[in-house]
């Protein structure tokens, strides 16, 4: 079997209606598949004004706004007409990108038709409850995820650290890596723009601590703001630049009234914003890769990040940035203070990060996943099947 023989049905809860790292990675994957002659059909919720044009043939599925997060859509399943469309398309592999109702429905249809299924893991959903005062639900969410992923032929994490977490959680017997790339023509030190900084009220002679991402609590906004308070209390000169939008923007702005909010940025504008920072602070523990971390490194910006999945495979502690135990406010403040007060250290870490980022190209990482598609399809054709689900889904 060759790549041109692949017929991929991709199911995801968000393909292009809200921009994030996960759906941009999926669009780049589809573009690579199409460029190599494969056929692809995408099934996902759609909206009248998506965040960006979809790559490939996108089929809308029924969905409703998520309460409290209306910008996101909750898919309600496939439905008879979409199932008929899927039959006509006749995929030979199914890729599910979110363990929601749509993903479960796609998995069930695939199992009935004896189609191989792969799943990509884009976020640590089991960690979300802790940000909403529901930490006791984490074991329940983890068990539900385990039940879902074990029905797949293989699952793919974006980093080795996340893959190891999935193995330790006993999510699957077959855990592979689908890494992420970076657009080095956009994220480069050459995009640094002192005039743009000045237009926002950011001084040339004061180091800027940056945040990039959706403004939601699960990105660690509380940890970020607490650490900034500690840096301020130490009398360390600094300014804060926030790049992104989201439902927690008002809370964040009240929490950090001196910060500069640049809003949502994309493309060359995002590259300029990242390169114009002096360091990136990424305290999130929900990431499975950390696209913003890699983008900052490509822009020659040192990174202070939580020692968590994703970032710990990108950041070399003491070389390209600093890794800090999640939630350790004083330690985060120590790392930020060190970079704020040592321009040479910032420059050295940024240059080292730039060199590391050169290992990550989109074509290479997507070709690796496509090769895994072919392996899974061949294994199923040879009679292989995912393990039968036991009566105790929490145990292997």
From TrEMBL:
Annotated coiled-coil positions are none
| InterPro entries found in the cross-reference section | Glyco_trans_4-like_N (IPR028098), Glycosyltransferase_grp1 (IPR050194)
Task: List the signal peptide residues.
Answer: none
**UniProt domain Glycosyltransferase subfamily 4-like N-terminal: residue ranges:** 20-184
Q: Which domain of life is it from?
A: Bacteria
Q: What Pfam families would the database entry show?
A: Glyco_trans_1_4, Glyco_transf_4
Concerning PANTHER family, the annotation shows: SULFOQUINOVOSYL TRANSFERASE SQD2
Q: What protein name is recorded for this chain?
A: Glycosyltransferase family 1 protein
Q: Which organism is it from?
A: Sphingomonas quercus
